[in-house]
């Protein structure tokens, strides 16, 4: 994207952090509007990178694409991959 909206902070090339407070469904919708999805984190290095960037931008609370089932167990990521 060539233009940045005033309520967005861009974190690296593939992450967007919004300054406004939203719930999970709103965050998911905002990603989908941009042809993206909430992030899936599959290893410690990726987790540390996301945390470092989000904390450095002072994003406050953040949503990731971790989904839970009816028993409230986290079972899949937004990209469909299993939680390991």
Looking across the biggest beta sheet, what order are the strands in?
1-2
Oligomer: single chain
Radius of gyration: 13 Å
Compute the average pLDDT: 75
Architecture overview:
- The chain is α+β, with helices and mostly antiparallel strands.
- Helices cover 27% and strands 18% of the residues.
- It has one domain (8-77).
- The protein contains 2 helices and 4 strands; from the N terminus they run E-E-H-H-E-E.
- The model is unreliable at 1-5 (pLDDT under 50).
Q: Any chance you could write out the topology, listing elements then pairs?
A:
Layout: E1 8-11, E2 15-18, H1 24-33, H2 44-56, E3 66-68, E4 74-77
Antiparallel strand pairs: 1-2, 3-4
Task: Characterize this entry briefly.
With 84 residues, this protein is α+β, with helices and mostly antiparallel strands. 27% of the residues lie in helices and 18% in strands.
Q: Top keywords for this entry?
A:
84 residues; alpha+beta; two-stranded antiparallel ribbon; 2 helices; 4 strands; 18% strand; disordered N terminus
